[in-house]
Amino acid sequence: MIAQVHVPFLITRAGTATVLTLAAVGGSMIVPGAVTDAQAATRSTKALKIAASKKGSPYRYGATGPHRFDCSGLTLYAFKKVGKKLPRTAQQQYNKTRHVSAWKRKRGDLVFFHSGRSVYHVGIYAGRGKIWHSPKTGSVVRLEKIWTRSVWYGRVR
pLDDT at residue 39 above 70? Predict the structure, then answer.
């Protein structure tokens, strides 16, 4: 994918002089693989809708869909459907995302539940303090209020 990015978007792949020169002349640049914030938000919103569409699908440890899911299997499946590859486990997904603070979280961000430094569960933020997730054996994909403060947020790039 090639994205055309108009300055003042900050692109870390470009050299500082290039970005400053473009800003001075009001130009734009094309960076292969770059995604604007708006494109990333659209993907995350679509992934959120895909996860929600799986409401009622049964939990199964190790399952990645399309009819059964574990927690990270649901997030992996939803983002794969919008063209983003995530690693398999909740911990690996946390390591792969751009970490954001609770007050900067957005719908479609991943919510990682942790104990100390270890991530043990993941869901997709739906807004208003709720997530779509596949909680545990005997349950189904559902919308649920975040039940603890021991969470971190990650944005899929």
Answer: no
